[in-house]
Amino acid sequence: MQIAITRGVSPSMDSCELTFLERAPIDIARAREQHAAYEACLAGLGLHVISLPAEPGFPDAVFVEDPALVLEEVAVILRPGAASRRGEADSLERILAAYRPLRRLRDPATLDGGDILRAGKTIYVGLSARSNAAGVQQLAAAVEPFGYAVRPVLVRGCLHLKSAASYLGEGTVLVHRPWVDAGAFAGMKLIDVPEECGANVLAIGQTLLVAKAAPRTAERLEQLGWQVRLLDNSELAKAEGALTCCSLVFTAALPPS
Question: Is 245 annotated as catalytic?
Answer without folding.
Answer: yes
